[in-house]
Write a structure and sequence with these properties.
Blueprint: E1 8-11, H1 15-26, E2 31-34, E3 46-49, E4 52-55, H2 68-75, E5 84-86, E6 89-95, E7 103-108, H3 115-121, H4 125-140, H5 143-147, H6 154-159, H7 165-179, H8 188-201, E8 205-207, H9 211-224, E9 228-230, E10 235-241, E11 244-250, E12 254-256, E13 259-262, H10 266-274, H11 281-288, E14 295-303, E15 312-317, H12 324-331, E16 341-344, H13 346-349, E17 359-367, H14 376-390, H15 392-395, E18 398-404, H16 406-412, E19 449-451, H17 462-486
Parallel strand pairs: 1-2, 1-13, 2-9, 6-15, 13-19
Antiparallel strand pairs: 3-4, 5-8, 6-7, 10-11, 11-12, 14-17, 14-18, 15-16, 16-17
Helix pairs in contact: 1-9, 1-17
This protein binds flavin-adenine dinucleotide.
Flavin-adenine dinucleotide is lined by residues 11-17, 34-37, 42-44, 57-61, 234-235, 263-264, 296, 298, 409, 413-415, 425-427, 453-454, 461-464, 466.
Length: 487
């Protein structure tokens, strides 16, 4: 049989891979997508179990009103299908040191009034003024000023502003919840970009039918427009000779194309799929030193009645968020009594996500990205304890629960090729000196080989970052073809 001809092979069908594939198909390229799982979507998968539908991976879209998925759907001429649902209010629970109780505020997400947050932190008038001045400074930094902060931690940046403790503690929690990083390791440039997006476009959206439905729509568009997507096709090798990409090999077949875009992660792509021997030793050493982002320990609670009224809830204390010292203590087996809880409730956004009269609450907390970490099981129990303590009515309505963490994330998406890595929820760590302008180049030093997704190509949060990267990398691939045909 005559072999089909492809211009580009995309490895992986997560947001990065599919966004890149779609933009390339739109510009007339013949694209093959190979996915090792039996479904498309990467981490954003929405499962259907026991009458419920819910996410195993991402569950809240930041920014709320203008995410990269909207840009992508507009580019593909199907913006009306995006089915975005905006968060109208969030429940915020905070226990400052010295207080036995958690304070609770329900904060509307539609305006920009910080009063509910200031009340939560119990700021006096002068602290409110200082908080407003610091927040105004953070959202007014332009792109160049942000670039200057690629090598500054958020903790060090905040030290240059006169921030009241309540705001600092909130930012430390936000670094964990939004970037899966400690505040003294996360690059200020990355966290501030997300803060600016939230300030401009709101802090949490969802999609009718869940995140998985959005990716399934992109895959359907691709198939309808001539791309081929093959699932259960694990790429075992990227074929390279004479410094150029030739295609990829799966267990059963070889597929050939002059360009390969990998969303399998930079370290798995270079160390496992291509092989170190094709790269300069200095490049390989820098790549080995790139840190994984944090993992996420998730517990899903299935309730016999609807209890939570907002689509998102946060519970944290001055003791619950992790800086580097606390993260290391956990690695050494010292599991803290309090953990930060990030909760979402899909059925508040889309009532069809749960059977009538029931509710699924997805709770999670930061954890090690190491699929083999022994600290994940104890963290599930701390999630239970916090959930019971802060949301007792919901706890008493629990019929059953399920847990998953970095092991399942790595099995489902990213291979672990270096010790302690594989179960990261975002991708590479968005840490000091390794992101922004210092993030790896999406064009790898093998002719025709590109990365798309969270490891290269765009800043910001999770799916927004990966989708933005995919679209940008499609542009780089176009340029590669322009150059290849011109010479
Ligand atoms: C628990 C959890 C919670 C999260 N919460 C949020 C959130 O609330 N908001 C948000 O925006 N983001 C969130 N994220 C992050 C978000 O899901 C990721 O940032 C995003 O999915 C990364 O996209 P990607 O395309 O880079 O990679 P992925 O989504 O990981 O996709 C990569 C794809 O490549 C495939 N693949 C890998 N190796 C091979 C191979 N050798 N051959 C073939 N296929 C291969 C994988 O199977 C996968 O389908 C969360 C993630 C997790 C795990």
């Amino acid at each position: 049989m005559k072999e089909k001809k492809w211009d580009v092979i995309v490895i992986g069908s997560g947001p990065g891979g599919l966004a890149c594939a779609a933009m390339l198909v739109k510009s007339g390229k013949r694209v093959l997508v190979l996915e090792k799982n039996d479904h498309v979507g990467g981490k954003p998968v929405t499962v259907e179990r026991g009458g419920y539908r819910y996410e195993l991976g991402p569950k809240l879209q930041v920014p709320m009103r203008d995410p990269a998925f909207r840009t992508l759907f507009r580019e593909l001429g199907m913006e009306d299908r995006l089915g975005q649902v905006l968060l109208d209010a969030a429940t915020l629970c905070y226990r400052p040191d010295g207080s036995g109780e958690f304070r609770v505020q329900v904060a509307p997400q539609t305006g920009d009034d910080p009063t509910p947050l200031f009340d939560l932190w119990d700021l006096d008038d002068s602290e409110r003024e200082r908080a407003i001045a610091a927040m105004a400074e953070m959202v007014s930094l332009d792109g160049d000023a942000l670039d200057e902060l690629d090598e500054v931690s958020m903790k060090d940046y905040l030290a240059t502003l006169d921030v009241p403790w309540g705001l600092y503690s909130y930012m430390a929690m936000h670094a964990n919840a939004s970037l899966a990083e400690p505040i003294d390791r996360v690059a200020a440039s990355e966290q501030l970009r997300i803060i600016q997006e939230i300030a401009a476009s709101g802090g949490g959206g969802y999609y009718l039918g869940g995140f998985g439905r959005v990716l399934a729509d992109v895959a359907a568009w691709l198939r309808a427009n001539g791309a081929e997507i093959l699932t259960r096709q694990r790429v075992g090798e990227i074929l390279v000779s004479d410094g150029r990409v030739r295609g990829v090999a799966t267990a059963g077949s070889d597929f050939h194309a002059p360009v390969v875009v990998s969303s399998a992660g930079i370290q798995p792509t270079v160390l496992k799929l291509v092989g170190e021997r094709h790269f300069d030793q200095g490049f390989v050493e820098r790549l080995r030193a790139l840190e994984p982002g944090g993992g996420w320990a998730t517990v899903r609670y299935f309730l016999d009645r609807p209890v939570l009224e907002t689509g998102m809830a946060l519970a944290y204390s001055d003791q619950s968020w992790w800086d580097l010292a606390r993260a290391r203590a956990v690695d050494d087996g010292e599991i803290p009594d309090e953990v930060t809880l990030f909760l979402t409730v899909p059925a508040v956004f889309d009532p069809t996500m749960a059977p009538a009269g029931k509710q699924c609450v997805i709770a999670g907390t930061l954890c090690s990205p190491d699929p083999l970490s022994k600290t994940i099981e104890p963290l599930y129990r701390r999630v239970d304890a916090m959930f019971e303590r802060v949301f007792p009515a919901a706890w008493h309505a629990v019929e059953r629960k399920e847990c998953d963490g970095p092991l399942e994330v790595s099995d489902g998406t990213r291979d672990s090729v270096l010790p302690g890595q594989g179960g990261e929820c975002v991708g590479l760590g968005q840490v000091v000196g390794q992101c922004g302008r210092l993030k790896p180049d999406p064009e790898l030093p093998v002719d025709g080989l590109f990365l798309a997704g969270c490891d290269a190509g765009a800043p910001s949060m999770g799916t927004h970052q990966a989708t933005g990267s995919g679209m940008k990398v499609a542009g780089l691939v176009e340029r590669w073809f322009d150059h290849a045909y011109a010479t």
